[in-house]
Structures are given as structure tokens and as C-alpha cells.
Amino acid sequence: MRLVRQLTFTTLLGAAGLGASAAANPLSVHVLDQQSGQPGAGIQVTLEQRKGTEWMQLASGVTNEQGRIPALYPDGKAMAAGDYRIVFRTGEHFARKGQPSFFPRIPVEFTVDAPAQHYHIPLLLSPFGYSTYRGN
């Protein structure tokens, strides 16, 4: 019984540690291919911030096997209030699958008004449409 309690406590402690490290980065993304029901793995993603009338690239990454980039914001920098854009390069994803698609890139613009919060941007993708929302 004592061993079970100790294992449970250790598991909970480890899970809390994972949550804390994931929460340290203020921005994550997730892509799901609605047509196949599979994660959108291997999709290139860029993060940009509006500076005046220009967009400045802050970071880039590639979705992992679960279709996620758990930490897209640059390490060691605090997110500032302002306008941001994430660009998902979805045309390359469908080209690798040998499928035609309508949207070669999907830019998702959003406004950060509470920089201390975590922002999660999911993308539900199909060859001829997409949807997105602010997740958690």
C-alpha cells in the first residue's frame, strides 16, 4: 500500500513538473488533419509580430508527431501585448501526401492583450478548408 501511495505521489509530481515546463512558454500550436483524422505532423510554422506596418519573424518550428509545437515563442523572452501572426505552411503537407489543396499557407492573426496568459492556437485542417480558435 505504501509503495502504491509513493508511486502515485511520484507520478503526480512528475505530471505537475511537465505542466509547469509546458506553461513556461506562452504559445503553443496544434494541427489536426480532419480528412485523415491524424495529427498534422511535419508542418512548418512561423511566428511573426507586427511592428508598425511590417511583420517581423520571431520564431519557427515544425509540428511533431502529435501535430504540436508545445513552445513556439522564443525561449527566455516575455511575450508582449500586440498583434501576432502564425503562418502554417499547409500546402507542403498536402503535397507530401500527393493531395491537391486550396490553401498553400494559412496565416492566423491574433491579438495578445494579456501577456501573462498562455495562448494555444489549434488548426483543424482539410485540403479545401480550415478552422481555428483560441484554445487552452
TrEMBL record:
SUPFAM superfamilies for this protein: Transthyretin (synonym: prealbumin)
EC number: 3.5.2.17
Domain Transthyretin/hydroxyisourate hydrolase: start-end pairs: 22-136
Pfam families in UniProt: Transthyretin
InterPro entries in the cross-refs: Hydroxyisourate_hydrolase (IPR014306), Thyroxine_BS (IPR023418), Transthyretin/HIU_hydrolase (IPR000895), Transthyretin/HIU_hydrolase_d (IPR023416), Transthyretin/HIU_hydrolase_sf (IPR036817), Transthyretin_CS (IPR023419)
Family to which this protein belongs: Belongs to the transthyretin family. 5-hydroxyisourate hydrolase subfamily.
NCBIfam families per the UniProt record, alphabetical: hdxy_isourate
Name of the protein this chain belongs to: 5-hydroxyisourate hydrolase
Organism from which the protein derives: Massilia phyllostachyos
